[in-house]
Automatic annotation (TrEMBL):
It comes from the Bacteria. Gene3D superfamilies: ACP-like. This is Acyl carrier protein. It holds the Pfam family PP-binding. Transmembrane segments: none annotated. Residues 9-73 form the Carrier domain. InterPro entries: ACP-like_sf, PP-bd_ACP.
Length: 91
């Protein structure tokens, strides 16, 4: 699963954050892709949409390699979205 997530992550960096094609691989850190802290938040939001799983702030950080980021995202994806509790009934 993390290889598929890695592919989505790299594709997102290339298509949405102007990372030159071929310049990012599993060993590249997010910081090396010139993604700053604000862009990391945006990246998380885009990945939420693409992966269908919430990406809490702080899951992605500049020191992570893309492989480490993909593994963290895959772990979130495999655990599924948090259950939503029903609203209280009105009487």
């Amino acid at each position: 699963m993390s290889d598929a997530v890695l592919a989505v992550l790299i594709d997102t960096l290339v298509t949405r954050f102007d990372t030159p094609p071929g310049s990012a691989d599993a060993h590249t850190s997010l910081g090396e892709t010139a993604v700053d802290s604000l862009a990391l938040v945006e990246l998380g939001l885009i990945l939420e949409e693409r992966l269908g799983t919430p990406v809490p702030e702080g899951v992605l950080h500049p020191e992570q390699t893309l492989r480490e980021a993909a593994q963290a995202l895959a772990a979130l994806h495999s655990s599924g979205p948090a259950p939503v509790s029903a609203p209280p009934a009105f009487s």
